[in-house]
Amino acid sequence: VYTKFEYGLMGVNVDPKFQDNKWLYLYYSPVSGDTANRLVRVKYDDVRDEVLWNTEQKLLDVPVKRTDCCHTGGSIAWDRQGNLYLSTGDDTN
Question: How far separated are the first and last CA of the chain, in Å rounded?
Answer without folding.
Answer: 22
